[in-house]
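Practice problem: predict the structure.
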Amino acid sequence: MEANELMELLRFATAGSVDDGKSTLIGRLLVETKQIFEDQLESVERTSRAKGFDYTNLALLTDGLKSEREQGITIDVAYRYFATPKRKFIIADTPGHIQYTRNMVTGASTADLALVLIDARKGVLEQSRRHAVIASLLQVKHLVLCVNKMDLVDFDEARFDEISGEFSDFAAKLDVDDLSFIPVSALHGDNVVQHSPNTPWYEGPTLLHHLEHVYIGSDRNLIDARFPVQYVIRPMSHEHHDYRGYAGQVASGMFRPGDEVVVLPSGFNTIVAGIDRDGGPIDEALPPMSVSIRLADELDISRGDMLARPNNAPTVTQDVEAMVCWFNERPLREGAVYGIKHTTRTARAKVARLHYRLDVNSLHRDDDHQALAMNDIGRVTLRTTVPLFVDEYRRNRTTGSFILVDEATFETVGAGMVLGSTP
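Answer:
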């Protein structure tokens, strides 16, 4: 195995309000870590001059859609990949506009770390708080607040401390394990890759150094073995006619040949006979590996079933308590019915109760709210037509998450994080 394959991968998402410089910051990271070809940079320089900029607009490196480049805003989630000698990275550049909050949820849902950018001139805005709340709900363990455009406030230490203090007070109400603050200028590169002489008062790491060294080894759940079955493999060739494997992606925990497992929803116990990957057997399967698991007994197992440990299984339930981020212009109301997709299992779900809407500024609960409008976040109870196999989202991001789908249009209308359940 090559050394590059052994390097640890960090997924991080950018977040924040409009025009705070997220795309520019990512462009700066890519340029200064030598991830951009000369012809790409020259193209951006030409486009910048054609648009009348007196600087190279590095945001053009990440805003890939024509409509994004024309409007000068980020609409869709743009994924970028880069690597340093210490780590590999996947960046999700998410939109700042409130109408694209669902894209931010998408980008942050698999992130290990969230970068929240704040314009040093504007301070902490509602969208900054909204994105911090979403990152907290999505159990993003590491939050980095980049106070950007420090050059426009003369690199004022007092302004940086004021913003950091205000955000710290707000974040104290959230479920955030690790919070860091870095003063940067994405346009000029201050404290992005190299320490800036303009901030002699700042003694912390640069952004890249922090990204390279933040510890994420304990973030993955290797305790609760969960394997949602995606597909049953039955090769038809003569030499493999007895083969029966269950394909899918390991959601959490660890599976080894010889392990005793329980099959849900049937409740039958069996033994893992073998695990195959890329055409050959392996000794263990960890998240997020895609594998085929062979079992010692012939059982009736199909897509949507799950393998777990007999003494450590998820909750099997049709009543789910969850926080939901609502994406659709048509509001969520009590009594409405949606399609629900949870791991590889699909069902229908009725909104049995809307408990409250969460005010993202004050974090107060609005108990009198009758609906969730687009971009609202609230707590609901769902009743599903078939049992789901769930864990609390704070313990397991894969088995604790789901999406809601409009059955008429097939649009994804909401994303949910499981708080608990009634078995």
